[in-house]
Design brief:
By secondary structure, the protein is mostly helical. Helices cover 52% and strands 8% of the residues. The protein is built from six helices and four strands. The strands form two sheets. Strands 1-2 form a two-stranded parallel sheet. A two-stranded parallel sheet has the order 3-4. Helix 1 links the parallel strand 1 and strand 2. Helix 5 runs antiparallel to helix 6. The longest helix is centred in the C-terminal third of the chain and has 15 residues. The radius of gyration is 15 Å and the shape is globular.
Length: 124
């Protein structure tokens, strides 16, 4: 999404916990830092209220923090994961697949189609 200039006004927020341990590659972490520095995304930190979600839903800490933050702030969550979608449904969190979120943000059809093709390649 970064090369397509789809991230502009901090529409997307990412848990700072994804930057620890081995959740992301060093390159992905570097991209997140650059996007935050350029004020295109926002990193968030939560209190430890997400801890009970880790065992309750068998999710990793960054994912639990994202679920907790979305519920607390009444924000939708964007994911490709069917498991995360299932947890969101149980918790009453609105969830969008990435291309649905981009449509909601009025991004161009051409860019959305490109992202969708890339995501479909990753899933294969």
């Amino acid at each position: 999404m970064r090369p397509l200039d789809l991230l502009k006004e901090k529409e997307f927020q990412i848990s700072d916990l994804f930057l620890g341990d081995f959740y992301l590659t060093p390159q992905e972490k570097q991209i997140i830092h650059i996007l935050e520095k350029d004020e295109k995304i926002e990193l968030f930190t939560t209190d430890l209220g997400f801890n009970n979600l880790i065992d309750l839903y068998s999710v990793c800490p960054p994912e639990a923090a994202s679920l907790y933050y979305a519920k607390l702030k009444r924000l939708p969550l964007v994911t490709q994961s069917d498991i995360t979608k299932e947890v969101c449904d149980k918790m009453g969190i609105t969830v969008y697949k990435p291309c649905e979120a981009l449509k909601f943000l009025n991004k161009s059809d051409e860019k959305i189609d490109y992202v969708e093709r890339m995501l479909n390649r990753i899933e294969v």
